[in-house]
Specification:
This protein has a domain at 58-171: Immunoglobulin-like, CATH 2.60.40. The protein is 10% helix and 29% strand. The protein has one helix at residues 8-24, and strands at 58-60, 80-86, 92-98, 101-103, 106-108, 113-116, 126-127, 133-139, 144-151, 166-171. By secondary structure, the protein is mostly beta strands. The strands form 3 sheets. The chain has a 5-stranded antiparallel beta sheet with strand order 1-2-9-6-7, with no helix packed on it. The protein has a 3-stranded antiparallel beta sheet with strand order 8-3-10, with no helix packed on it. A two-stranded antiparallel sheet has the order 4-5. The longest helix is centred in the N-terminal third of the chain and has 17 residues, at 8-24.
């Protein structure tokens, strides 16, 4: 004899039980997504600001130093002028560094270039390096200072037109 029931709770329990059994048997994939109720969130905006109080800007009087034509073993005086003007609103120090002299696959070292704070009538000064060196040149705002360069060609250097990148850096 069959028992009739109108109880929806028993039917719902049967459906939920069957769904879980099917899920564990690998027949149904169950994904549950939980999200916070939007009514529980509140927000408020705020403004932010920052004042940049100093800038460090550089202006050079030239973009090229031409040492001319030299033979192996010759050098120039350390008197090729570069003027560094501080265009920023903060005092700065002048730093300098460079790369090796390069002509295709031929090159010679960065230290064959000298720099000095004063113009010299001979090849004297500080060897340029691959890393920044502080020249101890202090440049107040809107002021300028000079730095001078010279080069010496190694005696057995192959004939070619060589190029070097010299970097002048102002640090605030």
């Amino acid at each position: 004899m069959a028992i009739k029931t109108n109880n929806k709770k028993i039917m719902n329990l049967f459906i939920v039980t069957a769904a879980f059994a099917a899920m564990f048997a690998g027949l149904i994939a169950l994904n549950v997504y939980l999200s916070p109720a939007l009514s529980a969130n509140t927000q408020e905006n705020l403004n932010a600001n920052v004042v940049v109080s100093s800038t460090c800007e550089i202006g050079l009087n030239t973009g090229v130093i031409n040492f001319g034509s030299l033979n192996g073993g010759q050098s120039t005086n350390t008197n090729s002028l570069v003027t560094d003007t501080n265009n920023g609103n903060a005092n700065t120090y002048l730093w300098v560094y460079g790369g090796n002299w390069i002509a295709g696959v031929t090159n010679f070292g960065v230290s064959n270039t000298l720099w000095d704070r004063t113009s010299d009538s001979s090849f004297i000064g500080n060897a340029l390096t691959l890393t920044p060196a502080n020249t101890a040149e202090y440049i107040p705002t809107t002021a300028s200072n000079n730095i001078y360069f010279g080069v010496q060609i190694p005696s057995a250097q192959a004939a070619a037109t060589y190029n070097q990148l010299i970097t002048i850096l102002n640090t605030c």
